[in-house]
Design a protein that fits this description.
Order of helices and strands: EEEEEEEEEE
Number of helices: 0
Shape: globular
Structural class: mainly beta
Strand order of the largest sheet: 2-10-9-4-5-6
């Protein structure tokens, strides 16, 4: 059992930064890989970043170098640091978990949080 809640979204200007948090309750993240996804109105949910194991992370190619995923020492919180935000980053951001540590596909993920909105003005 794991339940996820995202936070840290908000409205920022282009070029600014935000750090999103994904907090797990229940069993926490033990035994799972963690993914961040985002979805804009009228668009499909797309992969952003994943934490698969210590030292093993993966990012959507277009976001590599701007976004960083990390996990705290207690293993109950995962972060998404977003730098140099652009208008196209505007979306609701979700975290989720999977047993398939290789996956970037949303259908492999479960226990989705309610999401947190990020809005970037240009």
């Amino acid at each position: 059992q794991v339940q996820l809640v995202e936070s840290g979204g908000g409205s920022v200007q282009a070029g600014e930064s935000l750090r999103l948090s994904c907090v797990a309750s229940g069993r926490g993240f033990s035994g799972y890989a963690i993914g961040w996804f985002r979805q804009a109105p009228g668009k499909e949910r797309e992969f952003v970043a994943a934490w698969w194991s210590p030292g093993t992370t993966h990012y959507a190619e277009s976001l590599k170098g701007r976004f960083t995923i990390s996990k705290d020492g207690t293993k109950n919180t995962v972060y998404l640091q977003m730098n140099g935000l652009r208008s196209e980053d505007t979306a609701k951001y979700y975290c989720a978990v999977t047993r398939a540590a290789w996956s970037t596909h949303r259908y492999d993920y479960t226990n989705w949080g309610p999401g947190t909105q990020v809005t970037v003005s240009s």
